[in-house]
């Protein structure tokens, strides 16, 4: 959506007073506040281009040196799928809430079918000994195989791809040392260990007839699955609770793994983990970083980390909105004479609420009125509801515009602009937040010029299911051919 259209909605304030015989107290003040926050959260085209150029430099640093803020993790997933991969493959996805086991039938020609089962992970299981967690994983795989094949007496072992979306250091496609747990996990005797080996031992102990072929991040899986279906896909992004990206890099452009003496004409998928962009020193986004971003950062469980993610991801947009409201309550602008304790609770305002506010179809913004009344026991005036919509739009637009910088940086790094490419995008912001994709496209054009239209985005394929299976098929094929036996 063009920038000018978003800014245009501020004119709604001039029409608000026509709906009432008497203007409400504070109406002019809210109009001024709306203009202030439009400017505060605005990111100019020039700033977008500057941020993108800095982003490119940070990506290169991550490829050149270990332990960089944006780590640019090698995945040992070599090359693109052919699209002709066929056969049955298992996928195990260890998420934050559920464990998912999938049987993926690859049919070739970019087609696949998935049969899956989900198993709930209890809070106790998230903190018991690490080997017990992987024993549980193995038992779930065994139950799934027995339910779909009648028994574990298969003629040949199935290949299993393991989607493990936690920070890991890899030295091979089937090796991954856990750096640290996230998403509420804290299993002892796991960090610093090869989680692929731990799962492999558990599968053997439970006599499950599968061969663990790969351990991957879900973003890497999204890249491969999307390319399997649409070969023009060169980049995959996650825009949801957090943010991340993966793409295929030339081995010759990854100096930090030169000691492995890999063929320089090979390509390898890189898991960027670029939600960490601008962390610690905060020197790349300082021009667009607000006091609300700083507050969220400093009061998080990991201050100064994941700075880029905290400005654009779904976990934080509602909190930015809430902090603005709390400021205006303290200034005596909003909810005069009402109890506001419910909205003063951190992270009580979900980002999904912003989506509802932006898309309220009623003339009186009744959806917004009901939202504040039901969840926070707050009465709202019409002019306040207009202000909420403008504030939501400003925060959501900034998220989309900054999100485009990460995509544009990879496009520039890989010189994809002239030929164009497709970006497979997953996550709730991309799929559910109103106008997010349109705003990203508009911003790509602002950053890259008219050729930015050559960069398309589309809903990504199932990276943790289909992507993991395709990678398992690719890995099996390479090993059968004797390629990289030691990797």
SSE succession: HHHHEEEEHEEEHEHEEEHHHHHHEHHEH
Helix count equals: 16
CATH H-level superfamily title of the domain at 74-231 and 461-480? ATPase, nucleotide binding domain
CATH class group of the domain at 74-231 and 461-480? Alpha Beta
Mean pLDDT over the full residue set: 90
Please mark out the parts with pLDDT under 50 across 5 or more consecutive residues, or reply none. Answer: 1-25
Percent helix range = 40-55%
Gyration radius from CA atoms, angstroms: 24 Å
EC number: 2.7.1.-
Domain Hexokinase C-terminal: 234-474
Pathway: Carbohydrate metabolism; hexose metabolism; Carbohydrate degradation; glycolysis; D-glyceraldehyde 3-phosphate and glycerone phosphate from D-glucose: step 1/4
Organism: Malassezia brasiliensis
Describe this structure as you would to a colleague:
Pathway: Carbohydrate metabolism; hexose metabolism; Carbohydrate degradation; glycolysis; D-glyceraldehyde 3-phosphate and glycerone phosphate from D-glucose: step 1/4. It comes from Malassezia brasiliensis. Keywords: ATP-binding, Glycolysis, Kinase, Nucleotide-binding, Transferase. InterPro entries: ATPase_NBD, Hexokinase, Hexokinase_BS, Hexokinase_C, Hexokinase_N. The protein has helices at residues 3-8, 12-16, 27-40, 45-64, 130-149, 195-205, 218-229, 291-298, 307-312, 314-330, 351-358, 366-376, 382-414, 428-432, 436-448, 463-480; strands at 73-78, 86-94, 98-108, 111-120, 158-164, 168-172, 175-178, 210-216, 233-239, 243-250, 267-271, 421-426, 455-459. With 487 residues, the protein is of the alpha/beta class. The protein is globular. The strands form 3 sheets. The protein has a 6-stranded mixed β-sheet, sandwiched between helices. The protein has a 5-stranded mixed β-sheet with strand order 4-3-2-5-8, sandwiched between helices. Strands 6-7 form a two-stranded antiparallel sheet. Helix 3 (27-40) packs parallel to helix 13, helix 4 packs across helix 15 and helix 10 (314-330) crosses helix 11. It has a domain at 74-231 and 461-480: ATPase, nucleotide binding domain (Nucleotidyltransferase, domain 5, 2-Layer Sandwich). The chain contains 16 helices and 13 strands.
């Amino acid at each position: 959506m063009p920038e000018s259209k978003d800014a245009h909605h501020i004119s709604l304030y001039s029409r608000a007073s026509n709906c009432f015989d008497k203007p409400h107290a504070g109406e002019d003040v809210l109009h001024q506040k709306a203009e202030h926050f439009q400017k505060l959260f605005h990111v100019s085209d020039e700033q977008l281009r500057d941020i993108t150029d800095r982003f490119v430099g940070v990506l290169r640093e991550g490829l050149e040196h270990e332990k960089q803020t944006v780590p640019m993790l090698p995945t040992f997933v070599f090359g693109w799928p052919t699209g002709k991969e066929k056969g049955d493959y298992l996928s195990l996805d260890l998420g934050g809430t559920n464990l998912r086991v999938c049987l993926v039938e690859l049919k070739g020609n970019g087609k696949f079918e998935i049969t899956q089962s989900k198993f709930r992970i209890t809070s106790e299981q998230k903190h018991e000994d690490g080997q017990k967690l992987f024993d549980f994983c193995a038992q779930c795989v065994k139950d799934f195989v027995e339910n779909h094949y009648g028994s574990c007496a298969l003629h040949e072992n199935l290949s299993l791809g393991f989607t493990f979306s936690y920070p890991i250091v890899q030295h091979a496609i089937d090796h991954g040392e856990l750096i640290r747990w996230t998403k509420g996990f804290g299993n002892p005797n796991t960090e610093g260990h090869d989680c692929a080996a731990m799962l492999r031992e558990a599968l053997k102990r439970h006599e499950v007839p599968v061969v663990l072929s790969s351990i991957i991040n879900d973003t890497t899986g999204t890249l491969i699955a999307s390319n399997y279906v649409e070969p023009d896909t060169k980049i995959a992004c996650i825009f949801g609770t957090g943010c991340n990206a993966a793409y295929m890099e030339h081995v010759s452009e990854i100096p930090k793994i030169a000691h492995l003496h890999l063929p320089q004409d090979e390509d390898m998928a890189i898991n960027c983990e670029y939600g960490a962009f601008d962390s610690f020193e905060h020197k790349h986004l300082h021009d667009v970083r607000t006091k609300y971003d700083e507050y969220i950062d400093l009061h998080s469980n990991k201050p100064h980390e994941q700075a880029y993610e905290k400005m654009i991801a779904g976990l934080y947009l509602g909190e930015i909105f809430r902090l603005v409201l709390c400021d205006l309550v303290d200034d005596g602008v909003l909810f005069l004479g009402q109890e506001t304790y419910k909205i003063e609770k951190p992270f009580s305002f979900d980002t999904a609420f912003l989506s509802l506010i932006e898309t309220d179809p009623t003339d009186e913004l009744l959806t917004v009125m009901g939202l504040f009344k039901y969840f926070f026991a707050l009465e709202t005036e019409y002019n306040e509801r207009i202000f909420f919509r403008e504030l939501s739009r400003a925060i959501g637009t900034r998220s989309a515009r900054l999100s485009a910088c990460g995509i544009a940086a990879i496009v520039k790094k890989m010189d994809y602009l002239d030929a164009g490419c497709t970006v497979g995008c997953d996550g709730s912001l991309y799929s559910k937040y109103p106008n997010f994709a349109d705003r990203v496209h508009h911003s790509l054009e602002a950053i890259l010029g008219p050729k930015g239209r050559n960069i398309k985005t589309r809903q990504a394929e199932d990276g943790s299911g289909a992507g993991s299976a395709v990678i398992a098929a690719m890995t099996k094929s390479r090993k059968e051919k004797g390629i990289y036996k030691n990797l």
